[in-house]
């Protein structure tokens, strides 16, 4: 590990900031740019959730919350996830309420991985996993999935474990997946679960996009191998509550007890009035995930068609709100150069694929989370840019 500044912990100094945010910062300075970059829902928080937050403030819910999470919110989470995903969590003792899924990831890594311990990571993957892992001195064992339509298989797990030659402690699965949008059937998950069990792996399952599953119903790994899974979920995507910062870790009480030590040290508790609003999000009408899902589905369908018409290679995204598209061979297949030129000349920003793992540099990720008009105008600009580049090449 290189140390350049004696004032700074080399671990932090060597942690690379998320590429996605770096690219976002660069292109957002371009005048009239239209962003199809972030996983930020364009929907507002529902009125019932807003009312709950306002009422909680008026009721002086301004004091420290219970560190692990208010009991009624943890119970609401248990009821919600048990009911929606056929799980069997017993009660509040199975839950920690975290500051978004981001904190949940950091707490789980810190609790399960001692410095130098290894974790299987199917790639491409959500970029911030990489820096969170570096900060706990965990070691990534990448499993490239691009040759199998971005899906992990038992054979890939077996091979990665054999190639690693040293013990691997855990695996991190994220589905529906950011950036590819792929998800897994019950059969696929059951087969994977058998391999995870056979190798005694902890399974960290980031299911933050579970409510945004378009084809079929989301199946949680926590249903299949409950004793081995640490389930992570949250309200950022399902309820368009990114700014409220609500996440959940759900697993066995003995593990929760250990994780609670880390959560308590990191944040102590998330704001009390936000916890009241989150409780209503989980117990209220559920209008939001249901209505959003249909809007996202339409956006996905028309955007996939447009990209295919332009010659991009698209794996059918069954969930989340991203399309991971392979740049056509007649265009610049260096995703970063492509995305930068597209941003400068085409005035539309997408994320270069290498932000999600080194072997996806010829891909771009398009987010359709923001809004219909923004998406359609962005896709028009992308088409104009592609036509122009093809014209210039003649
Ligand atoms: N996990 C994945 C796979 C994500 O895509 C995101 C956000 O985009 C997060 C976690 C972070 O979620 P939160 O906003 O709840 O911290």
Short account of what is shown:
The chain is an alpha/beta fold and 394 residues long. It has helices at 10-13, 19-27, 47-58, 71-85, 100-112, 128-135, 154-164, 186-198, 221-224, 253-266, 272-283, 287-309, 335-346, 372-392; strands spanning 34-35, 95-98, 118-123, 139-144, 170-174, 202-206, 229-234, 247-250, 313-314, 322-326, 348-349, 351-352, 363-367.
Which structural class fits the helix and strand makeup? alpha/beta
| Chain-averaged pLDDT | 95
Low-confidence runs? none
Order of helices and strands: HHEHHEHEHEHEHEHEEHHHEEHEEEH
Strand content: 5-15%
Q: Quote the distance from N terminus to C terminus.
A: 48 Å
Share of helix among residues? 40-55%
* Main pleated sheet: 7 strands, mixed
Description:
The termini are far apart. The strands form three sheets. A seven-stranded mixed sheet has the order 2-8-7-6-5-3-4, sandwiched between helices. It is 43% helix and 14% strand. The longest helix is centred in the C-terminal third of the chain and has 23 residues, at 287-309. The protein has helices at residues 10-13, 19-27, 47-58, 71-85, 100-112, 128-135, 154-164, 186-198, 221-224, 253-266, 272-283, 287-309, 335-346, 372-392, and strands spanning 34-35, 95-98, 118-123, 139-144, 170-174, 202-206, 229-234, 247-250, 313-314, 322-326, 348-349, 351-352, 363-367. By secondary structure, it is α/β, with parallel strands linked by helices. The protein is globular. It has 14 helices and 13 strands. The mean pLDDT is 95. Helix 4 runs parallel beside helix 11 and helix 5 (100-112) runs parallel beside helix 6 (128-135).
């Amino acid at each position: 590990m290189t140390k350049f500044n004696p004032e700074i912990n080399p671990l932090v100094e060597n942690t690379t900031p998320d590429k996605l945010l770096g690219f976002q910062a660069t292109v957002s300075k371009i005048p009239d740019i239209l962003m199809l970059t972030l996983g930020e829902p364009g929907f507002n928080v529902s009125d019932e959730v807003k009312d709950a937050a306002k009422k909680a403030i008026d009721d002086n819910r301004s004091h420290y919350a219970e560190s692990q999470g208010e009991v009624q919110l943890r119970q609401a989470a248990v009821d919600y996830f048990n009911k929606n995903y056929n799980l069997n969590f017993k009660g509040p003792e199975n839950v920690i309420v975290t500051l978004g899924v981001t904190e949940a990831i950091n707490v789980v890594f810190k609790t399960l991985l001692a410095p130098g311990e290894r974790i299987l990571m199917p790639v491409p993957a959500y970029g911030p996993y990489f820096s969170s892992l570096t900060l706990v001195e965990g070691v990534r064992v990448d499993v490239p999935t691009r040759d199998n339509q971005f899906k992990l298989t038992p054979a890939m797990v077996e091979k990665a474990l054999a190639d690693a030659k040293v013990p691997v402690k855990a695996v991190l699965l994220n589905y529906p997946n950011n950036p590819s949008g792929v998800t897994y059937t019950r059969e696929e998950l059951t087969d994977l679960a058998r391999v995870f069990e056979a190798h005694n792996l902890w399974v960290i399952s980031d299911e933050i996009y579970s409510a945004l599953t378009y084809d079929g119903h989301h199946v949680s790994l926590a249903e299949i191998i409950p004793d081995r899974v640490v389930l992570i979920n949250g309200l950022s995507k399902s309820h368009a509550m990114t700014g409220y910062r609500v996440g959940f870790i759900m697993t066995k009480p003995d593990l929760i007890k250990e994780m609670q030590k880390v959560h308590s040290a990191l944040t102590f508790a998330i704001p009390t009035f936000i916890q009241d609003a989150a409780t209503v999000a989980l117990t209220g009408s559920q209008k939001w995930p249901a209505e959003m899902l249909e809007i996202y589905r339409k956006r996905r369908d028309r955007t996939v068609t447009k990209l295919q018409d332009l010659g991009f290679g698209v794996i059918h995204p069954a969930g989340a709100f991203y399309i991971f598209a392979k740049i056509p061979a007649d265009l610049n297949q260096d995703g970063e150069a492509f995305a930068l030129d597209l941003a400068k000349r085409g005035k539309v920003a997408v994320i270069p694929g290498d932000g999600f793992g080194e072997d996806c540099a010829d891909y771009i990720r398009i987010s359709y989370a923001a809004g219909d008009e923004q998406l359609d105008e962005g896709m028009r600009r992308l088409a104009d840019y592609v036509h122009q580049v093809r014209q210039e090449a003649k």
